[in-house]
Structures are given as structure tokens and as C-alpha cells.
Amino acid sequence: MGDHVFMCYAREDQDFVTKLALKLRERKINVWLDQWHISAGADWDMEVDKALYECSKFLIVLSPSSVSSNEVRGEWRTAIDENKPIIPILYQSCRIPRQLKLYQYVDFTSYDITDESILLSIENVLKNQGQELQIPVVQQHSKTFGDLPAGSPINELAKTVDEWVQDDYPGYMVEGLSEKQIAFIRHPRNKLNITDTNLLLFLMRAGLHYGGNWPLWISKCGNLDVLTDILLDALCQSYDRVRFRVLYALQYHNPDRLNQMMDKKINSIPNDIMSIVNKHVNSQTVLDYLKGIALSSDKRLASKASAVIKEIEQFGFILKN
User: Per the CB 3.0–4.6 Å rule, which of 15, 83, 84, 187 could disulfide with 79?
Assistant: First the structure.
């Protein structure tokens, strides 16, 4: 582990964060700031991950922009998973994420960046002087699902599934699973007896993310209204493979229900995606659409489409039952 303080923030708050980092550096705090420490041409994601996993403390600047950022959310969730000491700085009033309310924050909303008293408070916390940083203890769930044995890696997801439901099924929460959990999701046993609806929905959403036999998870979810809702949210994400899988799955949903749900989300679904749904989902020609992409000159996108086509050819028939 390094001795640096990882600074997590939204790009919209960059001016404030840079000034704060300068003030902390003047106080001999070893801060890690992406714009300072990532050189031109370096792999940005790899450098951020390395600094995050090796940091001694995690400082997050809270604002309306940061709490709505998927990138920021992914970083603070990783910090929690890694049991990093977390120091929230409330820069602008906002709705603090439930998981971060466990940590005492430093309220910067009524102070200026030049105010020595608030800067000294932050310095003392970061140097662990005068108070001990409190790291919440994560309680282990003993819950088991269906016929899964107690030692199944999926039983470890009990707490995650509960939080996923409480947070309205966000896609980012299916990221960062263990290798054993991913292997289970990609290659499940056909005769699994999982009766917990929320777990099935989570495994379905994770299947869309990791690939493999994701059609099986969709078929096990049945005709739940929330399933269509989760699929439409996933459709709007930037991951091409997820979008391709969702388009194929939506072909086998009740058209009336699908159109009704899409009308409710008309302001959140981009026009280009809406056009694809209207043209290929309703006519059940998504596979032809993907084959066209697989032959396109965009090699990156063609490779992703080809990978999803292989999954459909191997497992896609399950959706037709």
C-alpha cells in the first residue's frame, strides 16, 4: 500500500479540487490527483485503478455533480470494498449517497478555500491527528438462495442484491464481481432452483454485462414488469455488448408492454436507440442488424457484435421457449 491520498471528484468540480489539492500539498499531504499524476499517453483507467487500490486514504469531494457521476460512484464503491479510510468533503449541498452517510464528512459549504480553520481540520483528519478514522465494519450475510449450497459464491451477493434493489437497480453495481461469481453467471446450471426474484433480476443484469448464457437468466425472470424496466435502462448505457444483448432480448417481450414502458422513458432513451428498437426489435430482426454490424468497417464494433452473435447462436433459443 502507498502513502498517498486518492482524490475522487467530478470533472465539473475540477477548479475547486485543484485548489484544495494545492493547499493540502502545501501542508505536506501526499495527494494523488489524476490530472497531476497521469502522463500523456498512459492508460488512464489502469493508472486510476492502481492509485485507488494502493492509496492509504480516500478523499471524495461531494457535490451534485459527483453524486450523479457513474465514474465517481464506481471509485467510492471500490474504496468501500477495499476497506479504505474514506474522508468525504462536502463541497456543495447534495443528497449524500446512503453508503457514504456512514462516514463523518467535513462540511466545506460555508467556507472559502483560503480558510485556514477548515483546511486545518482536513489536514488533521488526513494525518489522523486528534481523531481516529472510523471504518464501518461490513456485516456478513448468511443468507442462502434456493438450492444453492451455503458455500456458493452467489450467496455472498446477498448484501449487494439488497442494496441494488434499494438503489433502483443501477447497472454499475453488477461490476466488480469475483471471478467465481462471474464464472457462475456466465455458465449456470440449467436446472437451478432460485426462487428469490431480486437475485434472479441481479443475475440477469450481471449476465448482460459479463456475457455467456445471459438468455437463461432472462428466461428465468419470466414476464416481470421490472425486468422490462431494467432492460430499457441497460439499453441506454454506453457498453455496446450490453446494448446488443438487450436489443435481442427485447424481441421476446410483450410488444404492448414494451411500447408502454418505452413511452414512459421516452425522454431518457436516445433517438438513435429508439429508432433501432422501432426498426429491428418490433420486427424481430435484431440478429440481422448485428450481422450487418459484424461486417462493418468499424473493427472494434464488429468484434463486439460478432461475440454477441456467437452467444445468441449458442444460447439464444432459450428465449423462444
Answer: 84
CA distances in angstroms from 149 to 145, 192, 198, 214, listed in the order given: 8, 11, 18, 22
In a domain, 143, yes or no: no
CATH number, domain at 77?
3.40.50.10140
Q: Is 169 left (phi over 0), alpha (psi -120 to 50) or beta?
A: left
Q: What is the pTM of this model?
A: 0.55
List the chain pLDDT tens, one digit each, 321 residues: 668 999 999 888 888 999 999 989 988 889 988 888 777 777 878 888 888 998 989 999 998 888 888 888 888 988 888 888 898 998 888 878 877 877 778 888 777 787 887 888 788 878 764 344 443 433 344 455 555 666 677 777 877 887 887 777 788 888 888 888 899 899 887 667 777 788 889 999 999 999 999 998 888 887 666 788 888 888 887 689 999 999 999 988 877 778 887 887 777 788 888 899 889 998 899 999 999 999 999 999 999 999 999 999 888 665 554
**Domain with 288 in it:** 153-320
Rounded-to-integer distance, Cα 142 and Cα 85, Å: 26
